[in-house]
Amino acid sequence: MDVEFDSIIEENGLATGSSGGPSSALANFDTSWYIQASRRARRMDLIGDYAGREMFVIDGDSLLRQVLDDPLLALGRINDSSFQILHAFHSLERVLNEFRKRNAVFEIVFWEDVKDAVFYKDTNDFAFASRSLARAMLVQHLDRLNIPVHHFQALSDPKWQRFRMVLKPMFIMLDDGGPFDHEDEEENMTNPIAQSILVQRVRIFNLITQGLSCSLLRGTTFRDSKITTFIYEQRLEPDAKSRFERPFWKVVDTAHQSLRQLDTNRRTALLPRLQHISKEHEPLGNFLEIARLHFGEKDGLASWMLRVFVAHLLLLPSLSVQERCRPYDILPHNLDEYLGKIFLPTIFLIYEAAHQYASTVDVDGRVFRALLRYILSNPSVPLDGVVGEDITSELEQLWEKYHFHPAQFSELASQYSESSILPDAPSGTVATKDLQLLPFSNPVFTEILADTQIATAEAVDDISTVEMDFNTVFRDTQHWHNHRRALLPKHLGGEDKAPAQNEWQRKRQLRSEQRFTAKLQWQAESLTGAWGKTLQQIAIVTGSSAKSASSAALLEAAVNQKPKKKKAHVSKAEQIRLENTARKLGNQDHSNEAWWKEQLVQMDLLSTEGKTSQVDRLLGNPARSETGWLAVEMRLYRLQLELRAWVENSDSESDEDEIQNAIRDKHTVTIMRMIKELSERGGLFPTARKCIETILCCLGFTDYIPSFLDSSPPSPDDRKLGFTFMKLVRTKTKAPIYKFMPIVEDPVVWQLRLFGEYMDRSMDSQPDPRVSFNPDAWQRLVLDCLDDVDDKRNLNHSVLVVAPTSAGKTFISYYAMEQVLRRSDDEILVYVAPTKALVSQIAAEVYARFKKSYKSVGTSLWAIHTRDYRVHNPQNCQILVTVPEMLAIMLLSPQLSRHWAPRIKRIVLDEIHSIGQQEGGAVWEQIILLAPCPIVGLSATIGEAEKFNAWLASVQEAHGFRHSFIHHPHRYSHLRKYNYTLHDSSRHIFSGTDSHVPTGRMRFLHPVSLLSFGTRLLPSDFSLESADCLKLYHAFKAIARNDQSELRSLEPAIFFKREAFLKQKDILDYECVLKDKLVSVIASSDPQDGSSALSQLVAQVQDPTIAKLSLARQNTASSTDTIMQNLIFLLCDLHAQGDLVCPHCHNIICWADPKLQPAILFNFDRSACERAALTLLSTLEKREAKWRATSAEWQRKMEQWEIWKSQAAAREKQAERLRKQKRDPADGPAEQSDPSWESSFSPADPSPQFSFLGKKSSKEVLNEAIADIRWTPTPKWALDALLRGIGVHHAGMNKHYRTTVESLYRMGYIQVVIATGTLALGINAPTKTSVFLGDSPFLTALMYRQCAGRAGRRGFDLLGKVVFYALPMERVQRLVLSKLPSIGGNFPLTSTMVLRLFNLLQGSAYAPVAVNAIKGLLRLPQISFVSETGKAEMLHHIRFSIDYLRRSGLLDAEGNPINLFGLAAHLYHTEPSNFALVVLMRQGVIHDICNQTSTQNAKHDLVVLLCHIFGRRYLPSVYASARSRELFRKSPSKIILPPMPVSARNALLQHNTEILHIFTRYATAYASKILDVDGGETHLPLSKLDYSGEASPTVFHQYLKHTRIRTTSRSPFVANSGHDDRFGSVSELSQTCRSGLHLNEHSIPSMHEFTNNVDPEHADTLLLNAYLLDFYTHGQTAALVAANGIRLGDLWYLLEDFTLTLKTIRATVEHLLLRTTGGAGGSSVEGGDDEIAVAGVNGAEVEFDDEHTDGDSVARPLGVSDRDWKVFEVVDMVTKEFDEKFRAMWA
C-alpha cells in the first residue's frame, strides 16, 4: 500500500486509443502508465530489503542482451569481425555469480514471443548474425550451469502459468527497453525501435497487473552484499487491459508480428535455403550439409573460407584460453569486406541452425582470423604443417564425406599480394608505465606491511601546485558540523570552555533539563520487566559481588533455598530479630483472618457474579493475596465460584451438543488454570489438597492428581476453610453429582485441544542466585559467559545470542550492566541500539533499574549519545547508550582512545543483524573490528547464524577474547495467525464499539493450510501449537482412510505419557515427529494436484470461509480507500468482548475472551500510517457527533450534568461544613473529591464507545501527558487521536510525541498504535496483536519476524496474535513460509577507513588501545564475513590505499593526516564522494566556481556540483523521454539534474586516471607475486569448465603462443577479446581481473560514477534526480513529492543528510583556514565540557537551539587568500540558505 502514489495511475483513467503507429502508442502508454509506474518504483536492495531467500526469475533474453552489449566484448561489432564467445561465456557466468555470491535464489526464463523485441538492434548483417548465433550458444551454455532454465511461448502459455503456480517466483528481473525520445522520431507505422520498446513495456504492464512484481536488470548495481535496482510492485488487476482501448492493443499485436517478420526476412535474405535439421546427424555434419547446399560450387572463395573455418573449429579444443588471447589480426581489405558482409553472416546462421541440438559449441573469430592470416602469410607451408596431421586428416575426411572439392590454399594466397598482408605482430605483452610508491614510514604499519615488498621511489614525484595544500597536520578536536564547538574538554585535548551563557540561555537550558528529567521519570514508570512487573530500582554498591545480581535475586534465592541439615549458629541479636519477625507474622495472620471473615460476610449478600468480581478485585491486592494460607484460601474460594457459576448456568444450557461442549470447555480450562497456579504456588494445607483432589476426580483428571499435589510444597499445618466448599461428589459412591462436568475425551486430547497456551513453557529451568527468576538452560550458559574473567579479573568472554522474540534475551543486557557497575566506578559498558527510539527506552530502563552514588563530581551512571541529541556526558558515565554511528566515531577518536576507550569493558550490540543493512551496516563491522573489549551480540533474526558467528569468533579471538555462540530456537509464546478478509459482500455500519457485532472477517490460518502456496521446504521457525498438532494428526487420519497403521504411534493417547500434565517441551517432541511426516508428504506431492496428499491435508485444516474464496479473490489487492474505510471494523473486531469463531473448530462459538488489544498496526509508509490515523479519527468523530445528536441516553446524561453543575454552590457549602467538623483521626482524612461521575465528566471528552482508550485509563494522566507535548510541533490531529486511544509512531514524528505514545501504550491508556518499523526493533511495547496493515516492499522475511514478534511478549501474554489485513493470500503465505536471508555485510577497510586509522594513531600518540586494535584488525584471516579477501591481498590493498592518500595530499610520509583530511574523514560515510570533493577543492575547481563575478551564479553552480557528488538518487531511464519532460512541464522542479560543470568533470576524469593507475599497479603487484599468471586461470567462474587445452607442437600453436596477449591482472577470458592490462576504469578493473584477485570496486575511491552519463540527453541507463537542487531553488516539498517522486516520509532524512554535509564542509574549511593562518581556532567554543550536540537537525528532536551558531559571522583571519576566503563565504551562504529552507520545512 503506497498512499502517496497509489492514486497516480488511477487518476489517468482510460487511455485514448492509438490510431497512429508504435511511436504514438508508446508515447501514450508512457504518459498514461509507465512514467507514473516508474515514479512509484523504489530503488532498493533486492536481497537484504526485499526478496531475502525467496525465489525470483531473471528474463533470459534481457540477461543475454546485457552480456552482448558489453562494450568490452568483441562480438557483433561493426567493422570488427571478431566473435569471442569465450569472453561472452565468462561475462555471463560473472554476472550470474554476482547473484550467487549474495545467496540469491533465482531461475532463468525465456519467452519466445518477446525474443525478437528484446534482442532487436538496428545493425548490419554481420552483427545481426553474430548476436543471433551468440544468443543460441549462450542459451546452450546456460544448460551447463547448475541453474534451472525454462522456455515458454508467452505469458499466456499454460506451462508458464503452471510454473508460476508451482514455484511462486516473487518477481522477475527484465529490461524495459530503455529511453525513447518521441519528439526525435518521425511517425513510422513499422518503427522497429519503438515497437521493441513498446513490447517490452507492455510486458511489464502485463506482469504487474497479473500479480508479479518486476525489477529492472538495466542499471542494477552489485555492492558488497547488496543488489540494488528499481522495484515495480505488483498490482493484481484482472481487468487491466480495459485501461487501454482496442486500437492500442492492435498496435501492440502488430509490433509483435512485425518484429518477428523482420527477423524472419533478415534470415531468409542471408540464408534462403535452409533444409530440415536432423537430430541424428553430428552437428558438424549438419553444418557442412547446409553450407554445401547454400554455397554450392559457384563460390570458390567461400569454399576456401569454409575450409579454414572448419579447421579453426577442429583446432579450438586443443587451445588454452591463454592461447586464445588474441589481438585483432589485419587482413587484406577486400577479403575483410567479404568476410564481414557475405561469408560470416551466412556461416554464423548456418552454424546456429546446425548446432541447435549440440551439447557443446565453440567459435573464436580471432583464432579464425589468425589462422587465415597465417595461411595467407605462409602459402608454402602445407596445412598439416600448420595445424597438425590429426586435424588435417579429419578435415580431409569431412571434405570427402560431404563432397567438397579440395581447396589449395596456395591458390587463395596468390589472390592477395604480399603487400596487403602485414607482418606478424610481436608478442602481446604491453609495457605499461611503472608506478613506484611514494616513500612512507610508520611505526605500526611499516612492520605489518613488510611482507608486501613493494618498491618505493627514492624521491617524491613532482606534484603540481594545488589549492589548500598547506601540509598542516590535522587536529581532530572540533565538532564535525560546527568548528566552533569542541569535542572534548581542555584536559582531554579540547579547547577552553566557552564564556558563561546569558541569563535567558541558562533558564532555557534549565527548563529543557527539567522537562527531560520529568519525561524520563514518567517513561521509566511505564516500563516493566520481563515478567510484566514494575521495575524496582537497585542501589549499586561498588565492590559487591558481581554474582549478586540484585537484592531481588538474593531475596528470591533465600525464599527458595532448601533448609540445610546442619543447624547454623544464631547470635543473640539475630535470635531477637527472628522472634520479632515471627511476632509480626503472627499479628499479620490474625489480622488477615479477621479481614477475610469480614470479606466473606459481605460477599454472602452478593450474587455469584458479584462475588466473582469482588474476589478478583481482592486478588489484585498483593499485600494480602500473595502470602501464606490466605493466598491459598482466596484462590480456593475463587475456584469454588467458578464451579458454582457453571452449576447455576447448567439449567439454561441448550440441548445442542456444540453449545454444551463449548461451555464445558470454558469452565474446565479456567478451573484447571487455577489448579495449576495453586499447585505451582505451594503451601497447600491438607484441606486445600483434598478440595483440589475432589475437583480433579470430578472433571476426569484422576490420573494427574499425584503430579499436581506431590510436586507442590505442602503446608504442615491444616486449617478449616472460612467458607463451605461446594459438594461435587456423592458421599458413598464418590460419583460426580453433576453429570455434565467430566470431560468427554481423553485427557491428553483435551490438553492438546484447549490447554496449549497455559502449559509450562520452561526449558530445563532451574533456580540461579545470579538472577531473580529461574533461568532456562540456555540462559544459564549466557550467564556463565558473562561471568567469565581472565587471570587479571578482566571480562574475557564474548558471546553471540540468537533467540526468537519473547524467548527471554532482555535480561542479558541488564545483567551485564549491573556486573560492570558493581565492579568499579570507572569501568564502562556501551549499549548499542540501531534506532533512537530504542536508545531512549533503554536509557529510561537503566534509569528505572539502577542508582549509584559517585565520589567524583560530574560522573553519571548513564548517558545517551545519538546524532541528534545527548544527555549527560558520554565520556564520564558507566553505561553509555548510543547508536552505532556514534560509537564508531568515538572508537576512532584519537583523544578518546587515550582516556576513554581503555575503560570500556563490554559492548552490547542489540539487534546485531542490522550489520546487514545497506545504510550504516559498515559501522557495525567497524565496531566489532575495533572493540577493545568482549562483545555481546543479541538478535532474533540472523539467517545462517553459524556463518556470521564463525567470522565474529575469529575477530574476538584475534583480540584475545574467548567466544561462545548460543542459539535458542523456540519462542516462549506461540504466534497465532489470522487473515482479515475484505471480500465479504455484506455491508457493515459502524455505530460504536459497544454495539459492534463481530464481522466474522478474521479467519484463523492453520500453519499447514499455508502450504497450498507450493513451498517445498519448511522454514526453521515453522511451528505448531498443541491444537495445531492435534488438528494435523486428525487430518493425517482423515486422508489415510483405511490404512492407519503408520499413524498408530502418533495417536496422542499413545504418544504422550500420563505421568504429568503436558509441557511445551512435550509438544515440541510431538511437533517434530509430525513435521517429519509432513515433510515427506510435501516431497511426494504436487501442490497443483487437487487430489495429492498435501492438497487433502490443506483442505482438512483450512478455514472453510477462506476455502470458499477463489484464488483470484484471495489475491486481488483492495484499493487504498477500501483498506482505510474498513480499518474501523478491524479495530472493533479486535476490541470486541464476546463471541468469536473458534480458531480450531471454525463453526463452534469460542467461549474465551477474544479481546486482541492492545494492538500495533504496522505499515512501512509514513503517509499511510498518518492517513490511517486520520481516517479512524474522522470516523470516530463523525459517528460520535451523529450518535449524540440522536441519542436519548446522551441527552439524559447532559441534562443530569447541567443539573449537577447548577448545584455547585450547595456542594461547596456542604464541603466547607465537613471540613469544619471535628473528625476522629482514625477515620482518615476527609474526602476532598466528589465521587460522582459528573465530577469527571466533560462533553469535550470522547464517548467511550467512540474511543479505543484502555479501561483503566486515568483522564488526568492522559491530559497531563498530552499537555506536556503541546509545545512540540505535533499536529493537532495526532493529539486528538491520543484522546481516543490511537497513536502514530514513525521516525518523522518528533521524539517527545513518540516517547509519549510508547509510554501511554505500555500503561494501557492507548490501545492502538499505527507504526512503521520503528517499533519492530526491541522496543518494550508489549502487545497482544501485531497487525500488518497492507503490503509493502519493505515487508521482508526479516521485518515480518521482527514485527510479528512484538505480539505475545514473555511475562504479558501466553499467546500472541498476528493479523494480516488487506494482504493478498499469496503474500501472506510467502511471508510465513519465508526463510531468513543470510546476513549481509560490507567491506569495512575502505580508503577512508585507512585514513581514519592513521588519524587514530597520530592523534592518540600511538595509544596502546589504538595500536592493539589496528594490529588485531590486520592479523585477521578475513576482514569481513562477506568478503573473500585474504590477509595478503588485504595488506596489498592497504599499501596502495596509503599511496593514494599520499598522492591526494591527505597523508604525509609518516602517516600524519594533513590538509583536507577533515573533509575526507568527516564525510566517511559518503565515500567516494568525500574524495571527489577533496579533488575538486585541491584542483581549484571549487575555487573557480566560488570566485565568479556573480555570487548568485557561484552559489547555483556550487549546489549543482555538490548535488552530483552527494545525495545522489537515480531516476528510471524513462524520465529522459520528451513525454516525461512534457508531463512535468509546469512543475517548479527541474527533476533531471543538469550536467556537471565541464571543469569539474575533467578534474575528476584526470583524478580517476591516477586512481586507476595506482590500483592497477596494486592488482599487478599482487597477481605477479601471489598468483600463477601464466596458467592459473583456465576455468570459468561458475561452470568450472576447463579451457587449459592440450599441449601441441604444431607451428600454428607456437605462432599463437608467440603473438598472444599476455596479461598479469586481466582475466585471460576477457583478454580473449583483445584486452591487455590497460583498463578503462576501476569498474572494469574489478570486474575483469583474473580469478584470485578479489578486488572490491567500492573499496577503491573511483570517480567513475560521477563522470559517467553526465548528459541526460544521451544517457542510456540512469539519470540523477535534481531534488536537492530543486529544493534549494524553490523550497517546495510538495513539488519534490509530485514531480521528483520523493516520498514525503523519506524527504526529511534526505534533506537533513545534505544539510549536515554542507555544515561539515563549512566547518572543515573554516577549521583549516584558521589553523593554517594561526587563527584562534576554537576560541569561541560553545557548550563546554559536555556539549557534543549536532547542529542543524530537527528542532523537535533536540534539547537545545543552535540557530545562533549559524547566524554568527566569522571574521576573516589574517593571511587567508582572497580565493580561499571566497570559497568559505560561498559555502557559508549556501549552507545558511539551504538550512533556512530546511528549518522552514519542519518548523
UniProtKB/TrEMBL annotation:
One Pfam match: DEAD
Helicase ATP-binding domain span: 790-960
Domain called Helicase C-terminal: residue spans: 1249-1401
Ranges where the record places region Disordered: 1214-1248
InterPro entries: DEAD/DEAH_box_helicase_dom (IPR011545), Helicase_ATP-bd (IPR014001), Helicase_C-like (IPR001650), P-loop_NTPase (IPR027417), PIN-like_DDX60 (IPR055124), SKI2_subfamily_helicases (IPR052431), WHD_DDX60 (IPR059032)
One Gene Ontology cellular component: cytoplasm
Gene3D superfamilies: P-loop containing nucleotide triphosphate hydrolases
Source lineage: Eukaryota, Fungi, Dikarya, Basidiomycota, Agaricomycotina
Molecular-function annotations in GO: ATP binding; helicase activity; hydrolase activity; nucleic acid binding
Keyword ATP-binding: yes
UniProt biased composition (Polar residues): 1233-1242
Comp. bias (Basic and acidic residues): 1214-1226
Keywords per UniProt: ATP-binding, Helicase, Hydrolase, Nucleotide-binding
PANTHER family reported for this sequence: DEAD/H RNA HELICASE, PUTATIVE-RELATED, DEAD_H RNA HELICASE, PUTATIVE-RELATED
This protein's record includes keyword Hydrolase: yes
Protein name, per record: Helicase ATP-binding domain-containing protein
